[in-house]
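user: can you give me the structure for this one chain? tokens are fine.
assistant: on it. calling the predictor now.
[tool input]
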Amino acid sequence: MITPATQADLDVVHEQLGRIPRGVVGIAARALDGTPLVVATAPRLPDGTPFPTSFYLSHPAYVAEASRLEAAGTMAEWTRELGEDADLAAAYANAHRDYLDRRAALGRLAGTDDVPEIKDFSAGGMPVRVKCLHALVGHALAAGAGVNPIGDRAISLMTGVPAPAQASATGAAVPDPTVAAPASDDDARAEAASSAVRVAAIDCGTNSIRLLIADIAAGRLSDVVREMRIVRLGQGVDRTGAFAPEALERTFAACEEYARLIADHGAQRVRFVATSASRDAANREEFFAGVRERLGVDPEVITGVEEAGLSFLGATATLGTGQDAPAAPYLVMDLGGGSTELVTGTREVDAAFSMDIGCVRLTERLLRSDPPSAAEVEAAQAAVDAWYDRALETVDVSGTRTIVGVAGTVTTVAAAVLGLEAYDRAAIHGARLDLDDTVATCAELTAMPRAQRAGLGFMHPGRVDVIGAGALIFSRLLQRISAQVLAATGSAPVVMASEADILDGTALRLGQD
């Protein structure tokens, strides 16, 4: 039963979520003491945005426990079970229909029209998959026990959550999970989970737009969702000075997809950072408005130095400690589509410089042939050298002991160096790359015709045309940096590839706010 949301309720929900709740119709579930557990939300927000998550889980204890269960792999396990258990699948399908009926009732209560954009789309993966326990638990608490079998099951496995003040769909009292559930096997992990905040970070660069939904607790990041789409937002910006209409269309389509994922997974804080291409485009206000309309947040066009700092935070946070950890000082190289950042430091950034060379920009400017001619390669190397010489006025690389390369160009080159048949994030992250092998591999990728690159099992189709330029940049910088470090210290630096970068740094910073 939906109960009215008082101002006191809204203040509590604001504190629970860390933001002002939007489109609140009422409180869909409460604890025995009246504290809101689930917010009932209108299917269309006041700004016109369709909002599929009608029952938004807000109580931190429930949010943390849902995150813990998701991290334990329950969603994949229960999705498989749906394919094997006909009775469970039928009950789950009924829950899907119940969700749609309740959303329609919320729409009538809120005075909104039908929302065709989310017609037949419920939440949490229903009716055939388990994709977000937060949405399913929210539905189960709002509807009462016996309606959503997966949501009920998740609640039965939770510890330390307040009992809901409601009866089940059959009239029986809902069991108090704080009494019935066994104690956690790992009290420290449970304590950390209870303080977790779920964040959504979006990094929109020249070539790709990426989403990370993660739980942040005690300064550590646990992935919930990672997505990447090649949208080539920076298509032609170097030549025209403006975003192309088709590039904006691709980017906005990705934003709409990400908005649904963010809503499904109940992110409490969202940040959208835009990098090189967005700093340069004359029609960026059109881009800002489109993002704001779809995601409800304002894009932040960060400077090259800010980008460098976030990349350093993300890349170094996962390097580990102990005997096997790479030696500091670090040089983080973030090789993007429109720019490349060099950042030095140990625990914090010592110096940073952003160079206006990236795989898309260099391809469009200098490497236009397929494959590039010797003259084009020579000109591109000269351009990299010129920018690196400028960087040295700001960044002292001579003391570097570990070079950490991040972003898609570097990880794709790493896949080639490692001889992977398919892209494998786990194998790439933290891989140590032999300098000579890496330089040779980069040369092969740069000289390789695009049709041949496209046949490589690890190659993303959206990188086929620009990986040659990216590999050239990576190789040239590695050679120059390594030579300087060797001359200064007598030993060459270790070269590593990292899957953690500005996206992880943005999420970590968001979790600290």
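assistant: here you go. The domain at 199-301 is CATH 3.30.420.40 (Nucleotidyltransferase; domain 5). The chain has three domains: 7-194, 199-301, 319-512.
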